[in-house]
Amino acid sequence: MNYAVLMAALDLDLPTRGVLTASARLADLFGARTLGIAAGEATISPYFADGPVADKFVATVESELRAQLKSVEGAFRQANSARSDRIEWRSAERLPDNFILSSARAADLIVVAKPPDMGNLMHGPDVGNLMLQSGKPVLVVPADAEDFAAERVLIAWKDTREARRAVSDALPILKKAEEVHLLVIHEPETNEAAAIASADDVVNLLARHGVKAIAVAQPDYGGVGKSIEEYAEDIEADIIVAGAFGHNRFMEWLLGGVTRHLLRSANTSVLFSH
After folding, report:
1. What is the pLDDT of residues 122-169, one digit of tens each?
2. pTM score, two decimals?
3. CA of 158: how far to CAs of 197, 224, 234, 241, in Å?
4. Nearest to 174 by CA among 252, 241, 268, 225
5. Which residue ranges form the domains of the chain, and what is each CATH number?
6. What is the pLDDT of residues 46-83, one digit of tens each?
7. 124, 177, 181, 218: which sits with the fewest CB atoms below 10 Å from its CB?
């Protein structure tokens, strides 16, 4: 298994550096093609005016949008100048979500910037929706990251469909990594040996794929997401691999959850699978 095509999904309002750095590094690592993509829609209505004044306002907004798309395309092409024969660019003046989702079929892995708390969904993808609807793993990276590595990987393990899918989707990266940790967060009253039993199965499976991993169990004292984040910081992980949205997305957003915590709080790149 390998990543043959990467998608760099760019937000018009965020720095492009993190996504372009990560996708270029991964393209070199796997000898992959890179599909750059961005979209935006200018649907602001000048409710305060009509006639020529309104037409001029709309024309200005549309011109600014086209300039943003052109600027992002330029950044993408410059970041991939050394592999110009292995790139493709797609853009559109329309809402980003459906446009990017429809192109997800052309890629093995989507790379996207960590979204701000109040993102503009007319200029960039809904990252949570990408996880749920694309059918592809989504690598979320800090928007302004200056470098990217995949040498030390932390798998946030829980015996769920989403976590199993994440391990499978991350195999190309795991095979390249120098160090892989598989972390189980369990209830304080749970026996550590019982908590780590399912993790041992995953460690053995990874070994069959040529990946040497170690399993670690820790009790949950301050929240699962926070525990994962702290362990990642302790081992200086480059990437966290995690299942996304084991519960209803609305309930995770309302009550909090591991996906929401890692998406909003983690400073480390996170590869999510649903």
Report:
1. 999 999 999 999 999 999 999 999 999 999 999 999 999 999 999 999
2. 0.92
3. 11, 11, 20, 11
4. 241
5. 5-141 (3.40.50.620), 152-273 (3.40.50.620)
6. 555 566 756 676 677 789 999 999 999 999 999 999 99
7. 218
